[in-house]
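Appendix B. Raw example, untouched.
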Amino acid sequence: MKEFGYQRASDVSGAVALLDADPDARFLGGGTNLVDLMKTGVERPARLVDVTALPLDRIEPTDDGGLRIGATVTNSDLAAHPLVRHHYPALTQAVLAGASGQLRNMATVGGNLLQRTRCAYFTDVTGPCNKRAPGSGCPAVEGQHHNHAILGASEHCVAVHPSDMGVALTAFDAVVSYETADGPGEVPLADFYLPVGDTPHRETALPPGALITGVALPPAPVAAHSRYRKVRERASYAFAIGSVAAALDVRDGVVHDARLALGAVASRPWRARAAEQVLTGASADAATFDAAADLELAAARPLPRNGYKVTLMRNLIVAVLSELAEPGGPGEEAAR
């Protein structure tokens, strides 16, 4: 590990100023991803600016009925908060599925959104990787890619984003707020992650030196009737090979509102807007759910060894939607 300096920030403006003065510095939250990458040599910051003491650790209702989540809220506190559990249950389920208890106690909301891919080629600094070393190539395309992207990828990168939390936040139209030396800003999570294209090393729309200060969830009554389902290769803590965050509002057998996002299928949490359009206003039945899944996955471009994900995700989407639409189930409750 490269030698680095360390400073603890006492306020947001001070934290931003420290990074503005040292472009080779990095913000440090729980460190559950950054420190691992420093050990392998992927990340080599000259200085760490500890932001865990900043006053960004609260979860509060907003005036319009939504929720604001501070960037340094731990994953454990987020999952356990009564407002999250009641109004956004899929978010609680996603967080609990995302890591071990020890990691949830350390990891923060802001850090979770910024975690980087677990692609083995990315973490191996002895070989090429366009995300880590632009222009060097993507060996995963011809190599080991059974858990790589089937949507939105390019020949330059087929890695997937690892966040579970981000999938649920994407389904509910979360907005990320940040602070820079030039002042505050915000960006919808739908636009937060940049398309892969030919620049996979450019991962987010955050300005240089920006500090995430929080995430806002707009009011969404349908979110109270949501589920998160994750498929992984072992029952214990593991990254997803596919996941779904879904919410349904079913009234008299018809889908009044629908939210759907997919995980572990693209370089970012994937909002399934084509499927949502099929669902909204249609009968809440197997034929509709099949059609929604098929339309969303029609854009899939699997590699030779990850085509199973298309079938997996189709079955997962249909299963979660069917559960939400069961008579007397959570989807029906949305109309009450």
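End of appendix B.
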